[in-house]
Amino acid sequence: MTVIAEFTLTPAQVAVITLNRVGSQNALNEAMIDQLQAHFDSIKNDTTIRAVILNAKGKSFCAGADIGEMRLSGQASYEQNKMDAMKLAALMNTIYSLPIPTIASVHGPVFGGGLGLVAAADIAIAADNSVFCLSEVRLGLIPAIISPYVLAAIGPRHARRYFLTAERFGVMEAQRIGLVHETVSLGELEGFTQHLARSILDGAPQAQKLAKSLIENVALKPVNAQLIEWTADEIARIRTSPEAQTGLSAFIDKKLPPWRENSF
Predict the structure, then answer these.
(1) How far apart are the C-alpha atoms of 92 and 120, rounded to whole Å?
(2) Does the chain have fewer CB atoms within 10 Å around its N or its C terminus?
(3) Is 184 found in the same domain as 56?
(4) Do 179 and 73 reside in the same domain of the chain?
(5) pLDDT tens across 157-213, in order?
(6) Is residue 95 domain-shared with residue 194, that is, in the same domain?
(7) Residues 93 and 192 in one domain
(8) What is the CATH number for 157?
């Protein structure tokens, strides 16, 4: 099997997943989706991994869906197309709901499904040569699978523009609308990504998992008595956890907590 989604693990337990289908601008074909799904599934079940970096080789991060497979989809049945779509949908949801912090580190063209990968990650960093596009309508398609994650990132107002016009936009616009958090030069991309990974390693792993869950449980909820009580329950519960007790004791004693001792 040709490896087109590489997996490496640093000594600090940071997983790095690298798109490596350079000859096709890292376009998402069935094999790449399957390999990405397998990597993220293994990460999900590994309690020792602290963070995930998603990046790419070549001049493009990801050109979107594979043109050859898209051509064949026009001859496939509804059932076959649904099965194919569900594979990508499962991958996007796995990344979005992963309990471990994820960083998308991108450069060059970031189109279609590639943009969806960025939106599904917790943190997105883009090199200054990045170009983004939701190009589906120009092909007679819609960005259906990635829409929940893109809308969560940029909101419906910006989606109305870019879903409908399929305009290309650069890193400053991507940052302005909330798709990416930071923009850096291409030469600084890897170093800045490592800096963010180190920041994640400074946090308590269980607290980070609960913080991700907190966002999902609180986002867009009305501030009412039920939500207020739920948040109080959450902090009361975690204050007595072994991890919190260890972290607070280390802070008071001016020592490093155990999760920071192996930071790189």
Answers:
(1) 6
(2) N
(3) yes
(4) yes
(5) 999 999 999 999 999 999 999 999 999 999 999 999 999 999 999 999 999 999 999
(6) yes
(7) yes
(8) 3.90.226.10
Say if residue 122 is in the same domain as residue 243: no
Sequence-ordered strand ranges (E) for 35-152: 51-56, 102-106, 109-111, 123-127, 131-133
Identify the three-state secondary structure at position 13. coil
Nearest Cα neighbor of 69 from 83, 54, 55, 90 is 83
Whole-number pLDDT of residue 211: 96
Structure tokens at 103: 């960083």
Please provide residue 178's backbone torsions phi and psi, each rounded to the nearest 5 degrees.
95, 10
CATH code: domain of residue 251: 1.10.12
Q: Poorest-confidence range of 20-24, 68-72, 150-154?
A: 68-72
pTM to 2 decimal places: 0.94
Q: How far apart are CA 103 and CA 126, in angstroms?
A: 11
Q: Alpha-carbon distance 6 to 18, whole Å?
A: 5
Average pLDDT over residues 105-117: 98
In which domain, by residue range, is 237 found? 205-260
Number of domains, the chain: 2
**Residue 47: strand, helix, or coil:** coil
Whether residues 184 and 211 share a domain: the answer is: no
Across 243-261, average pLDDT = 89
The answer to whether residues 196 and 210 belong to one domain is no
Strand-strand pairing, 14-19 and 5-9: antiparallel
